[in-house]
Every structure is written in structure tokens, then in C-alpha cells.
Specification:
Elements (H helix, E strand, L loop, with lengths): L2 H59 L4 H9 L4 H29 L5 H8 L2 H9 L9 H42 L3
Helix pairs in contact: 1-2, 1-3, 1-5, 1-6, 2-3, 3-4
């Protein structure tokens, strides 16, 4: 093997290892991001429940169920008071949506969690999570599985979309060059 070929093979081996590390590090952050997102989601859910409990307490003191209180508020002739019924209905929906999202993501398996996350993500909470996200070294089976998937995806992309197409073009070029040199003039 010539020095050039050995250098190219050595360079490709180094690139291969660097890509493995990059893929593992990037993908292993997904469980950490989802964990930090779930903490933030839980905080939003706690706050929404606190607000809903206040509405329930006001309704109870007035001698109504929350639904009856909302109906009565909605039918109030004062438009400002009537609009508050929508705020209470929004609080109920928010608690339901956040609780559903939290349960779906937490109860998902290792392999279904990313899909559950994407199906139930609140993009505002995700953006705020990202703004304060702190990468971490995952020491869980989930982190290891994501790291392995990252290696596979990055190497698959590299070999499938970059290495093999370039190698094929290079070999074709070399074959045409050899044919041109071998052809009688």
C-alpha cells in the first residue's frame, strides 16, 4: 500500500472515530433534554393546578361546582365578568393538556419516548428549556441507547450520503482514466 493510500485510510479511520464520538454525544443529550423539559413541564403543571384550585375554591365558597360557576360567570351581563369564564375553561384545558403530556412522555418506553415527546411537546416550554439547557453525561441505559443510535445514524449518513457516493465517483473516474490510457490512439 502506498504512503498516500495509507494516509487516506488513516485519515478516514480518524474521521470515522470522530463521527462516532460526535454522534454519541449529540444523541445522548436527548434523554437529558427530555428530563429537563419534564421538570419544566411539571412546574407549569403545578402552577396550572394551583390556579385551577383557586377557581375551585371560589366556586365552592359561592356554593357551586366549578362547571356551574363557569356557566354562571359566562352568562353574566357584564362582558368583563363573562370573559373570565373563558379564562377558567382555559385553566381546566391547560391542566388536562399538561397532565396528559407529562404522563405520555414519562410512561413511554425507551424507544417510544422521542415520539411521545414530539407528539405532546409544548414548543414554548421546549424553547425555554433549550435556553437554559445544560448538557450532561448520561449514565443510564437510555443515554447509552441514544448514544449508540447516534453512532449508527451519523455513520449511516456519512457512509450512505458522503463516503460511498464519493468513492463510487472516484472509482468511475479512475476507470475512465485507465480506459483512456489503455485505448490506442
Amino acid at each position: 500500500m502506498s504512503i498516500g493510500k495509507r494516509a487516506a485510510a488513516s485519515g478516514e479511520a480518524i474521521l470515522d472515530r470522530v463521527l462516532c464520538v460526535v454522534g454519541a454525544v449529540l444523541f445522548s443529550q436527548a434523554p437529558e433534554f427530555m428530563q429537563q423539559y419534564l421538570q419544566r413541564l411539571g412546574g407549569h403543571l403545578d402552577e396550572a393546578r394551583r390556579m385551577l384550585a383557586q377557581y375551585e375554591e371560589i366556586a365552592r365558597r359561592a356554593g357551586f361546582s366549578l362547571n356551574a360557576f363557569i356557566e354562571r360567570t359566562a352568562s353574566n351581563p357584564d362582558a368583563v365578568v363573562a370573559k373570565h369564564a373563558g379564562v377558567m375553561e382555559g385553566a381546566i384545558a391547560r391542566v388536562r393538556d399538561l397532565a396528559e403530556a407529562q404522563a405520555a412522555i414519562q410512561d413511554a418506553s425507551l424507544f417510544t419516548r422521542p415520539f411521545a415527546f414530539l407528539r405532546h411537546v409544548d414548543w414554548d416550554i421546549a424553547a425555554r428549556t433549550w435556553s437554559v439547557f445544560k448538557p450532561a453525561v448520561p449514565t443510564t441505559i437510555e443515554g447509552l441507547a441514544y448514544a449508540a443510535a447516534g453512532i449508527g445514524v451519523i455513520l449511516g449518513f456519512y457512509y450512505g450520503c458522503i463516503h460511498f457516493p464519493i468513492t463510487r465517483l472516484w472509482r468511475r473516474r479512475q476507470a475512465r482514466k485507465a480506459e483512456a490510457q489503455a485505448a490506442p490512439e
